[in-house]
Amino acid sequence: MDELAGRFETEVLHTLHKKPEGIKSKATPIYQTSAFTFNDLDELEGFYQGEGNYLYSRVGNPNTDELGKSVAALEQAQDGVAASSGLSAILAGVLAVAKNGDHIVAADDLYGGSFHLLKSELHNFGIETTFVPFTDLNKVEEAIKENTKLLYTESITNPLLRVEKLEEVIAIARKHHLAVLVDNTFATPMHVRPYLLGADLVVHSATKYIGGHSDVTAGVVVGRKELIAEARSRIVNLGANLSPFEAWLTCRGLKTLALRMRAQSENAKLLADQLRENQDVARVYYPFDKGEKGYGAIVTIELGKNVDTDLFFKSLGWVKIVPTLAGVETTVSHPLKTSHRALPPEAQAELGITYEVVRISVGIEHAEDIIAQFESALEASVK
Ligand SMILES: *Cc1c(COP(=O)(O)O)cnc(C)c1O
What we know:
Layout: H1 8-14, H2 41-48, H3 62-75, E1 79-83, H4 86-95, E2 103-107, H5 112-124, E3 128-132, H6 137-143, E4 148-154, H7 166-175, E5 179-183, H8 188-191, H9 194-197, E6 201-205, E7 219-223, H10 225-238, H11 244-254, H12 257-276, E8 281-285, E9 298-303, H13 309-314, E10 320-321, E11 331-333, H14 345-351, E12 357-361, H15 367-380
Parallel strand pairs: 2-3, 2-4, 4-5, 5-6, 10-11
Antiparallel strand pairs: 1-7, 6-7, 8-9, 9-12, 11-12
The protein binds pyridoxal-5'-phosphate (PLP).
The site of pyridoxal-5'-phosphate has 16 residues, from helix 4 and helix 5.
């Protein structure tokens, strides 16, 4: 106080310093700071020599590290880093492997945003992608060229829930000395752990199940240590870092992933079983025969020709139309007009994404209430 000479403008800044050291907070504090302080130039130099952990939040922050390293631990990967969105995690993962002049072979049923990133943005930076149906692994192998560096697919696809044969994709990659990147957003490490199967990089839109409460946009990429070091450099240099508060919220959501996912998957299985019996539903997409815990909490249906799709969406009561997924509330989306809008009509038709396709993100409400809501909406919308 004395040394500040009692001038208010200075005091208001420099007497407010609270140092968190030694305070044993049960929850991780939010390091809502753009940078970190140093006692002397030696300590500052130490950071560059790899001694200190934190310098500037774009470069690294305890909250974003907590998220990256927690997801890495759950995937049993060597290391992980958080990013500002699922898409920026994908960008960082791809650019950890591929550069100008390189080639990627990707599944033709990737998430719409990922498709766009590869097809347009990365194309403009000189990275070419060939999209092939990963349902035919001969086509994958045929698409591999001399400059191919990466195979890219999703463990469970959106919205038709095709379960990727990861072991076979990884075997092709090994044979041709390629890296494999797997988007594990829909499955989560509770259902599938691609890194343990041999994938080099695993990405998540943490906006979805990792966060789980529809209140953050975030991403994570985990994998082999040296590739994550590259991905981290891309995130730092492209400015694709996650904010401390959003990382903190995502970590808070992550704590209940097992409970949420178990409840949501069980409800999804019950709903899928019920809708399969309903004559007004032409088709139910759900990986019924996979895994004893079920394969995730998304159920996609194709409404029967006798059902008015617009009326169905209007008749769902508390089930809201939301162009995202994985929150604790049950929601529906219309893939043709949202996530898969950007695909050419032929590709939409070929994948089977028609006007009648409805993607259901099953929540944690009571299963009977969820089922009742869908059955009454079907009843109300029969033509
Ligand atoms: C939502 C989603 C993304 C993109 O994530 P954002 O957080 O929206 O950037 C990527 N892949 C899959 C499978 C997704 O569902």
